[in-house]
Design goal:
This protein is of the alpha/beta class and about 200 residues long. The chain is about 45% helix and about 10% strand. It contains 8 helices and 5 strands. A 5-stranded parallel sheet has the order 3-2-1-4-5, with helices on one face.
């Protein structure tokens, strides 16, 4: 199913990674569950999807507060990343998004704008054989204010040399759509796995 695009002439495509390019959200949830279990924490599936796009450290800190835990943020984040990398070979690309990447590659530049680490993003794109298609990667640590703040999308547009109004964003989370809108960019909502 090819995702319908809004009307307009777009000079760059900006993509979130997890849940947008890579159909990795179910695998991320498994990695989260396994990592948190080691410290007595839990992340229910509905909350996991509701918090999509949030920085890993913020999620762990909020779970600590909600569940009365003192999970070490850096250690849990690192463990979750190791578990995700182990599961990565099972991840495939989101078909409707992959088709847009293939159709527009070499016609317009692409960027990934993600709340995940550069290590996680490059591993996902590398596994899918898509890494070389992206001129710019904007990942956690490259900006100070996470989505729904527009900073990361505006940085990607600047690095590509394309005006924000000429960028089209592909996103699977409400926070990402809000960030794109705040950046003055049109957006395509990528449906979650159960809607595809």
């Amino acid at each position: 199913m090819l995702l319908p695009l809004p009307a307009g002439e777009f000079r760059a495509y900006l993509f979130d990674c997890d849940g947008t390019i890579a159909d990795s959200m179910p695998v991320h949830h498994v990695a989260w569950q396994q990592a948190l279990k080691e410290w007595g924490g839990v992340l229910p599936e509905d909350l996991f999807y509701a918090w999509g796009g949030r920085p890993v450290a913020d999620i762990i800190a909020d779970l600590n507060e909600q569940q009365g835990l003192t999970m070490p943020v850096a250690a849990v984040a690192a463990r979750r990343e190791v578990l995700f990398q182990e599961l990565l070979p099972t991840v495939s690309a989101v078909p409707g998004v992959l088709q847009h990447i293939e159709d527009a590659h070499r016609r317009i530049p692409f960027a990934v704008v993600s709340g995940s680490t550069r290590e996680s993003v490059t591993a996902s794109l590398g596994t899918l054989g898509l890494l070389e298609k992206f001129e710019v990667l904007v990942c956690a640590g490259d900006y100070t204010r996470p989505k729904p703040d527009p900073e990361a999308f505006l940085l990607a547009a600047e690095l590509l040399g394309v005006a924000p109004r000429s960028c089209l964003v592909f996103e699977d989370t409400e926070l990402g759509i809000q960030a794109a809108t705040a950046a003055g960019m049109a957006a395509v909502r990528v449906p979650p796995p159960w809607e595809r």
